[in-house]
Amino acid sequence: MTLTVRDFRRSDAKAVADLRRASLPCLVSTPQGVAWQVAGAPPAQRLRLFVAESDGRVVGSVHSGLLHESSVPGQGAASPQVHPDHRRRGVGGALLTAAEQHLSAAGATRLFAWAVDEPGPLAFARLRGYRPSRPAHCLRLDLTAAALPPLPGELPPGVRVCTGADFGADPRPLFAADAEAAADEPGDVAADALDYDDWLRTTWEHPCIDLDLTSVVTVDGRVAAFSLALTDGLGRYSSAMTGTRRAFRGRGLARLAKNHSLHRARDAGCTEAFTGNDATNAPMLAINRAFGYRPFGGEWRCVREVGQG
Known about the structure:
The protein is built from eight helices and twelve strands. The two termini are about 30 Å apart. The protein has helices at about 15-25, 30-40, 90-105, 120-125, 170-185, 195-205, 255-265, 280-290; strands at about 5, 50-55, 55-65, 75-80, 110-115, 130-140, 160-165, 215-220, 220-230, 235-245, 270-280, 295-305. Helix content is about 30%, strand content about 30%. It has a twelve-stranded mixed beta sheet with strand order 1-2-3-4-5-12-6-11-10-9-8-7, with helices on both faces. It is α+β, with helices and mostly antiparallel strands. The radius of gyration is 19 Å and the shape is globular.
């Protein structure tokens, strides 16, 4: 096997999207989304997408960049993904080496990577000097068989359910809600420095964001809760983020937003719904269990201090 690690080319977009779905089935990925992720990356992220090519075929990739949405400098992330048919052949190691060299040159002193919760990937991470830090759950819901809770016939006074498309002229209120919820989300990297222009480019304008299936709950005209939806045109739907602003928590509004989004997704022909939660995020795990989501694999967030291990 002749292995080459190189930078992503736009012509690789379909191969990388197919690879991501094969290596981690809970991911929603499209060629358009892969190309957009690279072309629209904020400069502060210092993003590079490397691919591993074997005999003319893309068999692995790694997304490497600085965690610029955190106020803590010097943090980077890289998680190699290798096609199941090409594992244990040095592909992951070659990709991770390229990503680590790039991140170190970009100033990262702390590196994060996701490892599938299986003995092989975790052993690989430890061998490379990464220690498991936080577990996360991947969940799946079969929308063709799910008994979704019925939508409420009447909403409380002042409460309204909108779609993301309703905010097309001015998405800033939705950004403010997303930024507040992200800052409070459990994790080992605080997403507490989101920038509006970056958010527009990487989230709002992302080709996989489905504004018609995105639900937004307002209370007296103010955005209170939301559920961002991703779709791939292949019947797969994913919750990109579900959250509630601090002033409105404890009222079931996130559940309301997600329920509307799931109902619309099923009506639009989506057959599978995916989501991911930090293992300590008890409120969202409870909401997803109530909808009928079931475990579909797990991952560990792993961390390495540069120069150690």
